[in-house]
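Supplementary notes for students who missed Thursday's class. We covered one full example, reproduced here. Read the sequence, then the structure, then the short commentary at the end.
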Amino acid sequence: MRCPFCSKNNTKVIETREKGEEVARRRRECVHCKKRFTTYERVEMSPLIVIKKEGVRESFNREKVLKGLLRACEKRPVSIDRINKIIDEIETNLRNRSSSEIKSHLIGELIMTKLKKEDKIAYIRFASVYREFQDLDSFKEELKKLQRR
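Structure (token representation):
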């Protein structure tokens, strides 16, 4: 591991903590400059391929999911830790499937299921973009569905 301060290649692990099932947090110290820093290690899995509605294939991108969730949860009482946990749960769900090719609508549905349980306003915000409401009536219909549950 290269030191981010002096760029030397000689560091030692001082402490390791498991942060969830697939992430290890390691506290490291550079042998040369003695500065400390933290790294997060994630198990490298085979890539998940997302099939978009136009048929285009691209790699699963956690950052895209994060951006969508952050936008939906803006000014809502949903912590960044909870958002990251939701993304972890969704990614685990996708990786546990038999195929490594996933249709994008499945990801959207998983996100909406999680948001519906977490925060109804964030759910409606996400659904309004994801479902591409064209008019007020389709938006009202989604609100009625939410109220019935």
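Commentary. The longest helix spans residues 80-95. The two ends are 51 Å apart (CA to CA). If anything here is unclear, bring it to office hours.
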